Sequence to fold (123 residues):
Amino acid sequence: QVQLVESGGGLVQAGGSLRLSCAASGSIFSINAMGWYRQAPGKQRELVATLTTRPSTNYADSVKGRFTISRDNAKNTVYLQMNSLKPEDTAVYYCAADRLRRTGLTGRPYDFWGQGTQVTVSS
Fold:
């Protein structure tokens, strides 16, 4: 099993920045991809950024050029740097991990999930 704990969410004004962190523990040797999902009220959950062990990254068009996913292997932590935030970025953000090395933004949900962290962007 893999445990994921997110932190770093909060309230920010439009145009501001936040950095989310996701600390992984447990059977992390089994992880080959990490991702950040988000779900806004009344909307479907979407995968917005992926990072594999290769490493390679992929981003949803809605966040491309504004969000950056990265990792610190020494800390077993993945980050999501979010810049130029917009009110439409408001959502609960979930860190997720998968056993497969996958970069696609669609498909079955990742294998392991964090508890989520709220990001609210005010206009």
